[in-house]
Amino acid sequence: MTQKKLEPRKNITVFNADCSQLLKTLPDNSVDLIATDPPYFRVKQDAWDNQWDDEAEFLAWLDDILFDLWRVLKPSGSLYLFCSDRLAARTEVLIAERFNVLNHIVWRKENGVHKRHRKEGLRRFCPQTERIIFAEHYGAEGFAKGRAGYAEKCRELKAQVFEPLIAYFREAKERAGVSSKAVNEATSTQMCSHWFTSSQWKLPTREQYEALQRLFSDHADGLNKDHQQLTEEYGQLHRTYVELRRDYDDLRVQYEQLRRPFGVTADVPYTDAWDFDPVQYYPGKHPCEKPLPLMRHIVSTSAREGMVVLDPFMGSGATAKACIELGCHFVGVEMDDDIFSATAKSLAEYKTEEEQKDI
């Protein structure tokens, strides 16, 4: 099909195209968030939801889409993909082949169509939910740490500052000739590597230290310092560490910027069960229209202002409207000519709450 590109307003770009073709034209690592609602397969009567012969053919098509979503999503990006309750398990497994699945979110609709079903005619439990698979790239956290260098610098600094205490423990163990297994057994822990090496070093608790002293008691020059003395020395060194770490504040900021955005509070859905009312019927309603509050929650949680959000199954444009409200760039794709025209017009005319106040 012929592709059409429009920019109904600043930072909002929409394509009238088949996303399976359009996605291949987008650059690698070019979007920060993908929030999308592909066909569910034989849930709606529309032709676009019934174009595959069976579930296997549908999932093969979806897998091709997922490859391009994987390719265009930045290493620190997030994916939210809606799916039906019936195919949620198979969809999640498919996504997990390319992405690290973080949550299987259940969208519970209190006022859904389930209330209109004749209960006596049911042959299975009536679906009241849709599912959202939330995922990231494999190794995303390690990418942020490696690129910024903040975590590695902090580890190096900590090992340097606490070297006097680390050496005290390490040298005592070497003199005593005590094995790591014996240390772990004596303290009922697996902490030997944290006490006697610079890797993730920690000060033993009083009880653990006393157990170590008993283990080393046959050696006159073993662990002979009082735990209170060690605690005071640790406190002094820790204050030095905190002061020196401030030199790495720029790296810390860079590290935080490279991490996958995610921010929730007690005032928004922060578990994997979400309650949002579905969009009620109105003339011209898209058959799969998602509520704006739900899409706003996704965008506000997993994107920062100025980031690029992609919805390759744009539909009514709820994701785009959330981006307009939150100051994100948006790229959307819609194959249906009529839906595309209506959505592009709706986006051009859309007014945020602030814009409505100025009218």
UniProtKB/TrEMBL annotation:
Q: Which InterPro entries match?
A: DNA_methylase_N4/N6, DNA_methylase_N6_adenine_CS, RM_Methyltransferase, SAM-dependent_MTases_sf
What the entry lists under Gene3D superfamilies is as follows: Vaccinia Virus protein VP39
Please list the GO biological process terms of this entry: methylation
Ranges for the DNA methylase N-4/N-6 domain?
Answer: 31-343
List the PROSITE patterns: N6_MTASE
> Could you state a single Gene Ontology molecular function term?
DNA binding
This protein's source sits in the domain of life called Bacteria
Q: What is its EC number?
A: 2.1.1.-
Task: Give the main EC class.
Answer: transferase
What Pfam families does this protein map onto? Answer: N6_N4_Mtase (PF01555)
Report keywords, A-Z: Methyltransferase, Transferase
On whether Phosphoprotein is a keyword of this UniProt record, the answer is no
Record family assignment:
Belongs to the N(4)/N(6)-methyltransferase family.
Name this protein carries in UniProt: Methyltransferase
According to its UniProt entry, this protein's organism is: Parabacteroides distasonis
